[in-house]
């Protein structure tokens, strides 16, 4: 069965530091993968999506993610974090682009 | 373009009361999703439609929850007799092609 694990419930980084949020998926085959961000009292907003192809995908606001089939991972990265990145980040897998299975989320805190 | 609109934004109920949530998807989007997001959790699918047809409602507690999308546009999710365990944010989302768009959700508290 498909599932997503985000092993870090909370991550704290200093503004300007680099960031990596981890995501491991379980799916037989090559899935569609997504990262969403959720600001307080807002809906989820798409950061980036992966379709089979180039393993590194670029998203909005300087975010990128790298797909690894051998590691079943889709980690999110940013070179320099801004205070406005303070939010909750969700990784999701979609088999066949029908339903979406979300991880539990990683809450990012940015220290000035 | 207008986004996915949900109402109400907040609801507070006592156990046993009924409540309905309304969703207006983006115009032209044929697929509509309802997700339940408990506090500090990721969204979990309840049901989704393509046009007016239910595609998957296997995670919808059918004894108390129901969802309809009669004309393939707006949708209503109803909880017949709420329980404290239903406390969560209910998210509606829609898509036509590649990207899924989410509404801001309805935050339900059952006391």
Secondary-structure blueprint of this entry?
The complex is a heterodimer of chains A (112) and B (111).
Chain A: E1 3-5, E2 10-14, E3 19-21, E4 24-26, E5 32-38, E6 44-50, E7 56-58, E8 64-68, E9 73-78, E10 87-94, E11 101-102, E12 106-111
Parallel strand pairs in A: 2-12
Antiparallel strand pairs in A: 1-4, 3-9, 5-6, 5-10, 7-8, 8-9, 10-11, 10-12
Chain B: E1 5-7, E2 10-13, E3 19-24, E4 31-37, E5 44-50, E6 53-56, E7 65-68, E8 75-79, E9 88-95, E10 101-102, E11 106-110
Parallel strand pairs in B: 2-11
Antiparallel strand pairs in B: 1-3, 3-8, 4-5, 4-9, 5-6, 7-8, 9-10, 9-11
CATH-assigned homologous superfamily of chain B: Immunoglobulins
Q: Which class do the helix and strand fractions of chain A yield? A: mainly beta
Strand fraction of chain B equals over 45%
Question: Uncertain segments of chain A of ≥5 residues (pLDDT<50)?
Answer: none
As a whole number of angstroms, the C-alpha radius of gyration of chain B is: 13 Å
Radius of gyration of chain A: 13 Å
Order of helices and strands of chain A: EEEEEEEEEEEE
The name of the CATH topology of chain A is: Immunoglobulin-like
What order do the helices and strands of chain B follow? EEEEEEEEEEE
Give the full name of the CATH homologous superfamily of chain A.
Answer: Immunoglobulins
Question: pLDDT average of chain A, as an integer?
Answer: 93
Put simply, the count of helices of chain B is 0
CA(first)-CA(last) distance of chain B: 37 Å
The chain pair with the largest interface is: A-B, 21 and 23 residues
Protein model, in words:
The complex is a heterodimer of chains A (112) and B (111). Chain A contains no helices and twelve strands. In chain A, strands 2, 5, 6, 10, 11 and 12 form a six-stranded mixed sheet that branches. Chain A has a four-stranded antiparallel sheet with strand order 3-9-8-7, with no helix packed on it. In chain A, strands 1-4 form a two-stranded antiparallel sheet. Helix content of chain A is 0%, strand content 52%. Chain A has a single domain, classed as Immunoglobulin-like. Chain B has one domain (5-110): Immunoglobulins (Immunoglobulin-like, Sandwich), CATH 2.60.40.10. Chain B is 0% helix and 50% strand. Chain B has no helices and eleven strands. Chain B has strands at residues 5-7, 10-13, 19-24, 31-37, 44-50, 53-56, 65-68, 75-79, 88-95, 101-102, 106-110. In chain B, strands 2, 4, 5, 6, 9, 10 and 11 form a seven-stranded mixed sheet that branches. In chain B, strands 1-3-8-7 form a four-stranded antiparallel sheet, with no helix packed on it. The N and C termini of chain B lie far apart (37 Å). The mean pLDDT of chain B is 93. The chains are: A mainly beta (112), B mainly beta (111). The A-B interface holds A 4, 9, 36, 41-46, 49, 90, 92, 97-105 and B 3-4, 33, 40-45, 48, 55-56, 91, 93, 98-105, 107.
């Amino acid at each position: 069965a498909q599932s997503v694990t985000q092993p870090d419930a909370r991550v704290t980084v200093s503004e300007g530091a680099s960031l990596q949020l981890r995501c491991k998926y379980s799916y037989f085959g090559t899935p569609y993968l997504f990262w969403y961000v959720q600001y307080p009292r807002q809906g989820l907003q798409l950061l980036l999506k992966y379709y089979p192809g180039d393993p590194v995908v670029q998203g909005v606001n300087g975010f990128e993610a790298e797909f690894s089939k051998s590691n079943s991972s889709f980690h999110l990265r940013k070179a320099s974090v801004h205070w406005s990145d303070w939010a909750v980040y969700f990784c999701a897998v979609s088999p066949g682009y029908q339903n979406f299975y979300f991880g539990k989320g990683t809450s990012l805190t940015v220290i000035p | 373009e207008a986004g996915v609109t949900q109402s109400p934004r907040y609801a507070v109920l006592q156990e046993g009361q009924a409540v309905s949530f309304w969703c207006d998807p983006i115009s032209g989007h044929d697929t509509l999703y309802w997700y339940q997001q408990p506090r500090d959790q990721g969204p979990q699918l309840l049901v989704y439609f393509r046009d007016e047809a239910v595609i998957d409602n296997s995670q919808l507690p059918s004894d108390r929850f129901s969802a309809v999308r009669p004309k393939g546009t707006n949708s209503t999710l109803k909880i017949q007799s709420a329980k404290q365990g239903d406390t969560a944010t209910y998210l509606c989302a829609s898509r036509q092609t590649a990207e899924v768009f989410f509404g801001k959700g309805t935050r339900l508290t059952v006391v």
